Amino acid sequence: MTAYVIQGVGCRGDHVRFMSGGRERGHRHRHFGRGRGRGFGPRAGRGDIRAAILVLLAEQPMHGYQIIQELTERTGGVWRPSPGSVYPTLQQLEDEELVRETAAEGKRVYELTESGRELAAATTAPWAAVAGESDDALIALRDLAHQVLAATRQVAQAGTAAQLESAQAILRDTRKGLYRLLADEED
């Protein structure tokens, strides 16, 4: 990740933008600002969003945003599916006649059909596997990484050239230490 100071932008004056990407061969896109990234902890598999929607709709009819909120809450923030995965899945389930769209309080709400209820009864809730057994440790790790990023931004904005070099050395050592931690585990 590279930090760039952009001078005199907007009414706030100078600010720092972090940029990632572009180092791999053939990679043409660079991402500025806050990317969503891959996140922390186990990732949900492709079929997990489908199973999660079925299980949630078995509890009560919901709209898409409510499904996203519920999954985020049940996994302690570890899994927050995007609208780009929830809404197409809802459409697919509707095409398969497993859910139907209804209107409630001016919102598009989805509920299970009879065949959807049968399938949901045979489906296990995937959020326990996604959240993992140590979600508190993952959340603490994520929070600490965000704090390190905030400190890095402060050094990038206000630090001297010597402080910037020292910060780079600290971050390099930290990155190497984390990879060493994983390598030691494999032995």
Q: What's the CATH class of the largest domain, please?
A: Mainly Alpha
Regarding quaternary structure, how should these chains be classified? single chain
- What best-fitting shape do the alpha-carbon axes yield? elongated
Tell me what the CATH architecture of the largest domain is: Orthogonal Bundle
Q: Number of DSSP strands?
A: 5
Beta-strand fraction estimate = 5-15%
| Unreliable parts | 20-38
Mean pLDDT: 78
Strand order of the largest sheet: 1-2-3
**Number of alpha- plus pi-helical segments:** 7
How many domains in all? 3
| Distance linking N and C termini | 29 Å
* Category from helices, strands and their pairing: alpha+beta
What order do the SSEs take from the amino end to the carboxyl end, as H and E?
Answer: EEEHHHEEHHHH
Radius of gyration: 22 Å
Give an account of the 3D structure.
By secondary structure, the chain is an alpha+beta fold. The chain is elongated, with a radius of gyration of 22 Å. The protein has helices at residues 48-59, 64-74, 83-95, 114-121, 127-131, 135-158, 161-186; strands at 2-6, 15-20, 31-32, 99-104, 107-112. It contains seven helices and five strands; from the N terminus they run βββαααββαααα.
Features:
187 residues; alpha+beta; Arc Repressor Mutant, subunit A; 3 domains; 3-stranded antiparallel β-sheet; two-stranded antiparallel ribbon; 5 strands
Question: Could you give a quick summary of the protein structure above?
Answer:
By secondary structure, the protein is an alpha+beta fold. It has helices spanning 48-59, 64-74, 83-95, 114-121, 127-131, 135-158, 161-186; strands at 2-6, 15-20, 31-32, 99-104, 107-112. A hairpin with a 2-residue loop joins strand 4 (99-104) and strand 5.
